[in-house]
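Ticket #4471: complex job returned nothing on first submit. Input attached below:
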Amino acid sequence: MTQPANPQTAHGGGRVARASFRLLCRPAHVAVIVFVLAAALAAGLIGRQEQYRLREERALVSNLVAERAYAIQTSVDRVLSATYALAAMVRQGRGEIPEFALTAGQLLRFYPGAATLQLAPGGMVHQVAPLQGNEKALGYDLFNDPQRRGEAALARDTRQLVLAGPFNLFHGGLAAAGYLPVFLNDGDDDEAFWGFVIVGVAFPEVLTPARLGDLADRGYAYELSRRSPDVAEKQVISASSADALVDPVERALTVPNAVWTLSVAPIGGWSDLSDLVWKSAIGLLFSLSLAWQAAWQARLIAAANAQERKLELRAAQRSADLQRFAEVTAHHLQEPARRVASYAGRLRALLSGRVDDTEAQQSLDFISQQAARLQELLHDVELYLAADQPRGELEACRVDTVLSAVVAEFTERVDLSGAVLSVASLPDALIDSPRLGELFRIALDNALRHGRSERTLCIDIDGEQRGACVRYRVSDNGPGVEEQYRERVFRVFERLSSSSDGTGVGLAILRRVAESAGGRAWLDEAPGGGCCVLIELPFAGSPSSRPRTEQPS
Amino acid sequence: MTTPAQPFVILLVEDEMADAHLVKLALTENQIPAVVEHVLDGREALEYLRRQTARFAEAVRPDLILLDLNMPRLDGREFLAAVKQDAALQAIPVVALSTSAVERDIVGAYRLGAAGYITKPVDVADFITEIRQLTQYWMSLVRLPKHR
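Support reply: We reran it on our side without changes. The output follows.
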């Protein structure tokens, strides 16, 4: 048989959860919580998007810088490479280049960034092309110039091309020069330092391939600078403006004897303030809108909850009214029923011996019987209605004491029926004593009333603790109750036989008592095939296993 | 014990004439020398006890009140509460007469100060016996205040 759900467990914690939910559902609370969450979410999204945009922009600028730096390096290398051609000619001519001016002039056409080509035997400029405008360079001794002496010596000693400068010219502008030392074979397989071939690097022409001016048009500021080994401070070679760049993307270019750095940053800085303001405004609007919607929903939920509470109250009120109505009705019907029975009895006594009419006597008997039956029914209805109300303090009932008293009440009936009653020691339950007694009274009455058969009636009362509950069993060895009727018999006025006495309210009262005490009650088949009434109640916390005692009736 | 000059007075508070008749019948059948003053509800009973209306100007303070619980206007419970809160009346013993055998009604009556609770039996003969025992107890066995 399927056992009914435990009502106590089914209701557990629901009220607390509902109260917390109601508190959380206050519209103002919900609006603030949702606004804070939505604003945090929007700020997070905007922040992440800004980070992503910055990363993308820096990647774009980085590509741009790499491309332009490569163009500068290629251009400088190309200009400087003119010295190798000139050095080859010097070595070919054993220190002399016939028609230098003509040859150099032709070479310069292939090196757009080169301003001059010079020959400086022993470090002193001897020839320069084009001569026009560069006459002052003739006779310039590199080793005697304190500013250039170091670079000249470095080139000679390392036999490497050295880029000197850029340096500021007297007449304004910038210039740089590539010094390539030339060594000539003196015939003994030894090479002797001959001097330098020099290429003058024209600024800003050498930077033209990098199209740096184009960067400003695209909204970027740039700066090309260098740190030379002999000059600690940074020297700006070219810049879009005198202002310092904000967190620029930098790329280093390696030129002979120095490292140049190309730095690029957006003119207005990396942050797009207008974009941020716009996105923040959208985020704020989104948060406010969500908060408003949530508050609206919460208001609807609160209204629904209020309506639900109102309905619950109304239902409780209606239930209480119905209960009261039923109680009053039962009580008020008792009185006329009793009076009918009383006066019928009185009439019978008065007429006794005076009226010899069988039908009149029989009619009076029926009136008395039916009035008594009506009283019995009303009495049981009253008991049923009162069954869910404790009749004393809720306490840890000494079940053995209560059961002994009930058993004592039944001694005469048990004796008359010839039944054998066996009572085990039972664990205590949490319920008021009068109603616990009522449970056993009904179960015992049920066994005595319906457990009769050809065999000697044996009634066993036992039970045990099961977790937080105690389970009591009142079993008999009678005919039992068919499974299909085991739930039905708990209905009010439900009887399985018209011949059986009783009102059919007993088991309904039993279940109402058990459930209202936080337990349950149901029927099952007893081990011997009879009926077993099972009652489960909250455990009161006393030892569950005690020795079983046989009590002959 | 009462003296012949002061007959034992029972105030019967009962709205149902059929039940009042049974009480009077029981007293008559038992030949109990008590004076029965019958009022129909709690309000009339209070008026009687407090001599509040011309009808009850000469009312005699009862030795015992037999009280039905279910009555119109002021029912038995309300009447009982009013009597027990009234310093001048609270010494009068009140016995509840009711059809109900429900524990809650019985406990409720005692909590309100009832001196006894009788469930009206169905059988008239039983009822007559109960009334005889009851009146014997209150008229002969217990000592009641003399002051009226």
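Chain B has a mean pLDDT of 89. Closing as resolved unless it happens again.
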